[in-house]
């Protein structure tokens, strides 16, 4: 009886079956958009359009990117994917030529031109997300869930590559450059906006701030420029700090955030905690608590990270989908994008007494955590 009920529930009309087939195939092909975006970024197609006054033909793109003449028709196919997905726009002229233009998305892929363009260029971040080593790890999801041998590996990345992501970055200079360039690009774009839009968070900074895991100090430099009275320090691993350029307004300290964080009124954690499971986050936060004064004396931790679902019912489909996709992406290094109750748990276990979340447009929030 139950099997007949199940079959009835699964019954669909011909139109429904074909529509379901279409949707299934569409979901299966979504990764092609990422591959096309990665290719466009590597070819600097956005720069080609920008340098031609914001409009370029296929011949213009071919000339700028230096593609082989035999691949000209394939470039048109690539651009068709990129325009259909909204990365670029296409304007078909009367004589049949197609002129490609930038959209608000592809404007973030422009690195040519003035300083303003370079500060907004997120091309390096695409290189972090659309990365062969990360994608290879995600191909092991089924085995990671089901294979008994995977229990010895704490992450998908280790199962696929035999080492952690951080170990690969440490031994592969190229991977390290890709990662650091991506983090710097994100900081260049986001920090100035966040300091302006979240003045209540940053306006109450004390006299000192330490940026934990701050790499070459891009985020801390923006804070130092906006608040000259704040002494800014960057803590990162010795090999990372050793490669940091000299900066008159920053002090670089080599060290391990699991073992020690320099004393400061404010500790900044930008896109750090989502890389680590709960037990490691608690260890990091306990070191943060040791580093800052009491709340009455102005001590706090500022976390820039995602709070899944923080926009509530007003959250757009794109934002919601980006959050959950990012969560599975970060799973490849055993990271996690947390909902508020998950953040609350690690804050209180680390010994903090209160927190405040300020949602920001996009996929990140600012969390102030108080001792």
Automatic annotation (TrEMBL):
InterPro entries per the UniProt record, alphabetical: COMT-like (IPR016461), COMT_C (IPR001077), COMT_dimerisation (IPR012967), SAM-dependent_MTases_sf (IPR029063), WH-like_DNA-bd_sf (IPR036388), WH_DNA-bd_sf (IPR036390)
Protein's organism: Triticum aestivum (Wheat)
One GO BP annotation of this record: methylation
Active site residues of this protein: 274
Involved pathway(s): Aromatic compound metabolism; melatonin biosynthesis; melatonin from serotonin: step 1/2
Assigned keywords, A-Z: Melatonin biosynthesis, Methyltransferase, S-adenosyl-L-methionine, Transferase
Record lineage: Eukaryota, Viridiplantae, Streptophyta, Embryophyta, Tracheophyta
E.C. number: 2.1.1.4
Pfam families: Dimerisation (PF08100), Methyltransf_2 (PF00891)
Catalytic activity reported: N-acetylserotonin + S-adenosyl-L-methionine = melatonin + S-adenosyl-L-homocysteine + H(+)
Its job: Methyltransferase which catalyzes the transfer of a methyl group onto N-acetylserotonin, producing melatonin (N-acetyl-5-methoxytryptamine).
Sequence ranges assigned to domain O-methyltransferase C-terminal in this UniProt record: 148-353
Gene Ontology molecular function: acetylserotonin O-methyltransferase activity; O-methyltransferase activity; protein dimerization activity; S-adenosylmethionine-dependent methyltransferase activity
Protein name: acetylserotonin O-methyltransferase
Residues spanning the membrane: none
């Amino acid at each position: 009886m139950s099997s007949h009920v199940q079959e009835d529930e699964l019954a669909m009309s011909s139109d429904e079956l074909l529509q379901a087939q279409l949707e299934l195939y569409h979901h299966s092909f979504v990764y092609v958009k990422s591959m096309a975006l990665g290719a466009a970024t590597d070819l600097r197609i956005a720069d080609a359009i920008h340098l031609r006054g914001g409009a370029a033909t296929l011949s213009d793109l071919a000339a700028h990117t230096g593609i082989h003449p035999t691949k000209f028709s394939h470039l048109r196919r690539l651009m068709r994917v990129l325009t259909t997905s909204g990365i670029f726009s296409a304007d078909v002229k009367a004589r049949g030529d197609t002129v490609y233009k930038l959209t608000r998305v592809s404007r973030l892929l422009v690195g040519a031109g003035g300083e303003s363009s370079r500060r907004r260029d997120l091309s390096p971040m695409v290189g972090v997300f659309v990365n062969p080593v990360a994608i290879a790890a995600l191909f092991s999801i089924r085995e990671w869930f089901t294979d008994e041998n995977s229990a010895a590996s704490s992450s998908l990345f280790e199962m696929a590559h035999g080492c952690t992501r951080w170990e690969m970055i440490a031994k592969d200079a190229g991977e390290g450059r890709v990662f650091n360039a991506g983090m710097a690009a994100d900081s260049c774009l986001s920090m100035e906006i966040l300091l302006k839009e979240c003045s209540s968070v940053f306006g109450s900074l004390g006299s000192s701030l330490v940026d934990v895991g701050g790499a070459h100090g891009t985020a801390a430099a923006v804070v130092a420029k906006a608040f000259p009275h704040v002494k800014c320090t960057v803590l990162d691993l010795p090999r990372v700090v050793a490669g940091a350029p000299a900066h008159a307004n920053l002090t670089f300290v080599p060290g391990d955030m699991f073992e020690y964080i320099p004393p400061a009124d404010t500790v900044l954690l930008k896109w750090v905690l989502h890389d680590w499971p709960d037990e490691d986050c608690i260890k990091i936060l306990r070191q943060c608590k040791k580093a800052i004064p009491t709340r009455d004396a102005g001590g706090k931790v500022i976390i820039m990270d995602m709070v899944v679902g923080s926009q509530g019912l007003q959250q757009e489909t794109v934002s919601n989908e980006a959050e959950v996709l990012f969560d599975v992406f970060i799973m490849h290094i055993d990271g996690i994008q947390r909902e508020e109750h998950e953040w609350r748990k690690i804050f209180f276990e680390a010994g903090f007494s209160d927190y405040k979340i300020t949602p920001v447009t996009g996929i990140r929030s600012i969390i102030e955590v108080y001792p």
